[in-house]
Amino acid sequence: EIVLTQSPGTLSLSPGERATLSCRASQSVISTYLAWYQQKPGQAPRLLIYGASNRATGVPDRFSGSGSGTDFTLTISRLEPEDSAVYYCQQYTTLPLTFGGGTKVEIK
Amino acid sequence: EVHLVESGGGLVQPGGSLRLSCAASGFTFSHYWMHWVRQAPGKGLLWVSRINTDGNTVYADSVKGRFTISRDDPKNTLYLQMDSLRADDTAVYYCLAFSGGQPYWGQGTLVTVAS
User: Which one in A65, A104, B53, B98 has a CA-CA gap of 20 to 30 Å to A37?
Assistant: First the structure.
């Protein structure tokens, strides 16, 4: 099983600041099969990034993904108040599909 | 456009059964492997099961022997039969498909196991 470790657990930043979220895999992940999600309370996860760096339809360009192998990053270039949420990474290289434990982004 | 709609959730007593459905549209359902993922209240996301296009199935250890994934391709519908339900099966259940390397999710259906 590929274990995904996300850091930090919580990120508290001000509007306009840059947020950098990390997702580290216990073994190599095929970049094509790494996704990032945003989840707000009471809502289903919203796909932000797939294939490590491809933005999903309708996702603002302030969200970007990068990385390969075992280290992946989600960057939010200029935080907006509506970016307050929990962010998850997911690998779909092998079964079981696995998810990171999440990073909570708080907007000051 | 890929569209997935789950249904069938509700309140069930421990030891009871429930069948979830996931209605698919916007893609050739029979060509795709399908998954179930769940999220307990206040917790993270956990993969439950997968069925491929040949009907071969794989399960997480936590549900093996109790849950059965199946599909009806003419009806474009995925199912999850859940038996011997336990309190720790309480969660929102989502169906997933991958098309062109992109994941697609339904909105989820809530299953509550309580007496």
Answer: B53
What b/e readout covers A72-93, taking b as 16+ CB neighbours within 10 angstroms?
bbbebeebeeebbbbbbbbbbb
For residues B78 and B73, give the distance between their C-alpha atoms in angstroms, rounded to a whole number: 8
Count of CB pairs separated by less than 8 Å, A with B: 48
pLDDT tens, residue by residue, B62-84: 999 999 999 999 999 999 999 99
CB nearest to A96's CB, from B60, B92, B98:
B60
Which parts of chain B sit beneath pLDDT 50?
A: none
Answer for the pair B111, B100: CB distance below 8 angstroms, yes or no.
Answer: no
Distance CA A98, CA A85 (A): 20
- Render pLDDT for A30-83 as a digit per residue (tens, 0 to 9): 888 999 999 999 999 999 999 999 999 999 999 999 999 999 999 999 999 999
Which tokens go with B59? 């399960």
The alpha carbon dihedral of A84, A36, B78, B49 has a sign of negative
Residues B80 and B36: their CA atoms lie apart, in Å, by 8
Query: Cβ contact (<8 Å) for A90 and B94?
Result: no
Residues 6+ apart with CB under 8 A from B43: B91
- What are φ and ψ of residue B66, in 5° steps? -115, -35
**C-alpha separations of A41 from A45, A53, A84, B42, B108 in Å:** 10, 25, 10, 9, 13
Report phi then psi at A3, rounded to 5: -90, 130
